[in-house]
Specification:
This protein is mostly beta strands. The protein is built from one helix and 13 strands, in the order E-E-E-E-E-E-E-E-E-E-E-E-E-H.
């Protein structure tokens, strides 16, 4: 069982894209591909945008604070953008007990105005969804099915691997429902992929959008029910970290 973060082997941030893939960003650490992210706010009236990614991409295991913001950049359509602000969900400390708070927002400026931010929605069990993964040096969309929906997590068929953390899980209606967090199972075949629900904390999300001088997008209400956490697969180790 492992986190999907770590040293990415591909950089999906090419200049050519189509549809939802245009809103997928590459999150770099120390200038190297590290994780993925999604544009969730890009309004022509405001020069500042937000990228939603996984918290463990910007805050290492057992750390009390995120990594130095100067080490993080974002690549969109082949252009590198500096991160001017970083917000993580939950408290300062991040460890194995905080798996359900694996969300972070990166603030950037100057994104192309023709990139539409993804709207956040809610997934349902049994729904067909699309994940984005780095394969053979390019960004690929991979179909999957939602197995379980919890208040803060979504479980699907195994479709993610190392380097895919932070990437979007998109519902059949085109809305962003999850952020790639970790997977359970040997290697990168089969198993279960686990995504942090993009709508798990509407107040936190809306606060960031509101900080740009406008109302935050309504994320709706969660209809998920609580489950017995003891039956949940757990990652045995954190593997996300700087590239050697």
């Amino acid at each position: 069982m492992l986190f999907a973060g770590g040293c990415a082997t591909a950089d999906p941030s090419g200049s050519e894209c189509d549809g939802i893939a245009c809103a997928v960003a590459a999150v770099h650490l120390d200038g190297m591909p590290h994780c993925l992210g999604s544009v969730v706010s890009n309004d022509p009236e405001f020069p500042t945008s937000w990228i939603l990614t996984a918290k463990h991409c910007v805050q290492l295991a057992d750390a009390w604070d995120p990594i130095d913001i100067g080490r993080v950049t974002v690549m969109v359509r082949g252009t590198r953008f500096s991160v001017t602000e970083l917000r993580v969900l939950g408290g300062r400390y991040y460890g194995l007990s905080e798996l359900e708070e694996d969300l972070a927002l990166l603030r950037v400026e100057g994104l192309p105005m023709d990139i539409s931010g993804l709207e956040v929605g809610t997934a349902s069990e049994g729904e067909r969804v699309t994940a984005f993964a780095t394969m053979d040096g390019s960004l690929e969309s991979v179909g999957s099915t939602v197995r379980t929906v919890e208040p803060r997590l979504i479980y699907t068929e195994g479709v993610t691997c190392v380097g895919d953390s932070g990437g979007p899980l998109v519902a059949s209606d085109g809305k962003l429902v999850g952020v790639a967090s970790w997977r359970s199972g040997p290697g990168c075949e089969g198993g279960v992929s686990v995504f942090a629900r993009a709508d798990s904390d509407p107040e936190w999300f809306q606060a960031a959008l509101s900080s740009l001088g406008r109302d935050g997008r309504s994320l709706g209400n969660s209809s998920a029910v609580l489950v017995d956490r003891r039956s949940r697969p757990r990652p045995e180790a954190w593997v996300s970290g700087p590239c050697d």
